[in-house]
Each structure stands twice: as structure tokens, then as C-alpha cells.
Amino acid sequence: MHFVEAKRILSSKNGINIYRGCTHGCIYCDSRSNCYQMQHDFEDIEVKKNAVELLEYALLHKRKKCIIRTGAMCDPYMHCEEKLQMTRKCLEIIAKYGYGLSIQTKSDRILRDMDLLKEIHQKSKCIVEITMTTYKEELCKIIEPKVCTTKRRYEILKIMNKQQIPTIVWFSPFLPFLNDTKENIKGLLDYCIDAKVKGIICFGIGMTMRGGNREYFYQELNKSFPQMSKRYQKKYGYAYECVSDNNIKLMNFFHEECEKHGIMHDIEKIFTYIETFPESQYEQLNLFP
Asked: Is the distance from CB of 130 to CB of 144 less than 8 angstroms?
């Protein structure tokens, strides 16, 4: 872990990344890709030590309230957050000035900040986004080794529902030959249906690989599945998009089940829902019923 002085924290699309890098160890992580030009080891977390001050300055000078998003690039609840509490401090600023929040994670550390999530939602709007890839616990521990398993994330979703905080689930990625099965999709959907999630984002059944994350993925894959990388290389070569042979069949099943159970599954509509700041409490309660 190392600390840097950042020049800005809020992007043009109202996103923030307090940390760079991650310690969750997911073997498929796209954030390892060379294109992001990270100048340090991925597990050597870069901490923007002035993130809280920069965020407060940015929110004070914005003309219009909006939804602040975090977690798309690097998980805001990795291990160092337990000690540093930078994410919590940023949530305090968001709550203080009445902005909305959409926060994406794989970690149950988010439960620590339930008081702030509830406060933000009462004042404006809070959405919790959870990533789920693998129904079987043992496989989940292999491909996402240093973060809570999918079953625990399902429990997080239920807790959020009980607190009336809407949830969005990301189904991504699905690794060809490993979890691109109907059994896996059905197990994840059953969790989401029971937890009454608002929507599920799924771009397709497959994964992406670029320079940087491809090499790490193959290295870690071979530890548990010897020779599996050769199977990938034979089928996909150096392709960026690695689409499962089961893509069409499983995506049809996915959309049918979501429609049947009233779960949003149109990606454009979900992003509109996430990004729309409620102008009133009435709008918050009735947006996208």
C-alpha cells in the first residue's frame, strides 16, 4: 500500500475511485489490463490520501445534485478499507451534502456502513450493486479467492432488501468451460429472485481478456485447472471477447426468468435508473416501479 496526492477525485460522469489496485485476487480481473497504465503492482494498493477533501470540494461546487458512483474500477471495500475507512469518509461527505450514491462491491464489508447507506437513501437515493459470477461455493473460492463467496453476497442482498435499499446485481464474467452453465445461471437467478433485486446487468455469457489480465488469468487458472489455459488459447487465441458457446441459449433463459419474476434486465433502462437523481421523495419511491 502506498499513498499519493491526487489532483481530482470526481470524474466527468460523477464517478470516484479512492483506490487503485485490488487485493481480492479475482483471477479474471480486467482492471489488471495494461491499458489502464497502472505504474505499480496490482496488489500494492494506491491510496488517494486527499480523496475526502477533493470530494467535498467537488460536491460543494457542483451546480446540481446527482448520483455519485464508485466501485466500477476498483472495489471500495477491499482489505485496506478496514483500517483506512476512506470509503466510509467519502460516504459521510455524500450524505452530508444530500447527494445520491451507487456503490458496487463483492465484499460484505459494505455492511459496516449500513447507517450511512440508509441515511443517503432517506435523503436522496442509494443503490447497492453486487457482483455475482459463480453459484458453487468451491469454484467461487478458486476464482474469487480473497473476498466473501456468492452465498454471503446473497445474504447482503437480503439485508439490503430488508432495509429497503434497492440492489442491482452484475452477472459478470462467466468463464467458458467453468461456470458458463445453466445450473450456474439458475443458481444465481434463484438468489436474486429470493432477495428481490431491482435489476440484473448481464452483457453476455463469456469474458474479456487483454494484455496484463490475460497472463495473470492463465497463470492462476493453471494452478487449479492444469492445461485449461491451452484450451482457451486454442479456442480464443488473443481475442478480446471470449464468448461462450452457450451464450445464446443461456441469455434467452436469463431474459425469460427476469421477465417472469419482474426483474429489470434491459441494460439501458437499468443504467438510466441508477443515474437518475430523484427530485423528490415521491419520485424516489415511484421511479421504475
From this structure: no
Decide if 194 contacts 151 (C-beta within 8 A): no
Report the SS3 class of residue 155.
Answer: helix
Query: What's the rounded Cα separation, in Å, for the pair 85 and 27?
Result: 26
Radius of gyration of the chain (CA): 19
pLDDT digits (tens, 9 = 90+) for 113-139: 999 999 999 999 999 999 999 999 999
Phi, psi of 119 (to 5 degrees): -65, -45
Number of H helices, E strands in the chain: 12, 11
pTM over 0.90: yes
Among the listed residues 111, 47, 32, the one whose alpha carbon sits nearest the alpha carbon of residue 83: 47
Tell me the backbone φ, ψ of residue 14, rounded to 5 degrees.
65, 35
CA separation for the pair 121, 166 (Å, rounded): 9
> pLDDT value at position 282?
42
187's grid cell? 443458481
Look at residue 289 and tell me whether its pLDDT is greater than 60: no
